[in-house]
Amino acid sequence: MLVFNGQIPISFESSSIGKKQISIKRVNPVLGFGFSNCRFSSLQKVTWHTAFTIKVTGICLVHCSHSQSGQSLSTSMAVEKKVSKKDGKKEHHLWSKRESTGSGQKALNLVRIVSGLPNEKEAVYGALDKWTAWETEFPLIAAAKALQILRKRRQWIRVIQVAKWMLSKGQGATMGTYDTLLLAFDMDRRVDEAESLWNMILHTHTRSISKQLFARMISLCDHHNRPDKTIEVFADMEELGVKPDEDTVRKVAHAFQKLGQEDKQKLVLKKYLSKWKYIHHNGERVRVRRELQG
């Protein structure tokens, strides 16, 4: 009990849980908190400040522990969610990279194999069959990459051998493969084989032949001085409604000129070439009238 000038403005309660705690029970509003002359009994010499501090400290500890536990729980859930997302992206990235690297190594291995073989069909086809002997599916991507590598290295005989082998297996019958094979026939001067391939393409893929493939065949005919074949391919091109590019138009006009058909030459130039063209003059792009003669 606290004694203040003969009055009892504040009373305390003590609890017996561990150490003694003192809680404020009642405060005299008139006297306020002037405790300069107050004293405790001989049994309990604990100040009011100590009791108040213990009380408030206990409340703060409970509140902080709850808030920290909730915050740590939400933080751990967020971290776990981020880690799971990163793991998924990383796994997908590694799978794509591993797949690309595998096909590239197979392509280089194929190029190495065929480059060391004699120029015999049986030897080349036998080696290519061994290359796919243990594959569950035909390695089309690796074979296409190998074809592009051989094309860049200008190994035209190997390009023809690999492309023919792919087509014999029923694989790679695309406009890209046909374009590469026609280019190889052109560079290796195999005009007759190119014509046979073109006739097959024309009858098999009539409505899906691209402008690029028509241009490739016309370029081959022009390169080997076959104006009659150039005009024949151009007639099929017109019939299928494929518009030629400027370079193809000039080659067709040149073929008409060689055959002595100047009127058709002028007609082709007038029909497919624009009256205007753009040139660079003094650092500026200028439109000028195009000459009729190609």
Automatic annotation (TrEMBL):
- Specify the signal sequence span: none
In terms of superkingdom, the source organism counts as Eukaryota
Alphabetic keyword roster = Repeat
Q: Does the keyword Metal-binding apply?
A: no
Q: Does the keyword Transcription regulation apply?
A: no
Q: Which residue intervals correspond to the PPR repeats?
A: 210-244
Q: Which InterPro entries match?
A: EMB1417-like, PPR_rpt, TPR-like_helical_dom_sf
Gene3D superfamilies in UniProt: Tetratricopeptide repeat domain
* Protein name per its UniProtKB record: Pentatricopeptide repeat-containing protein
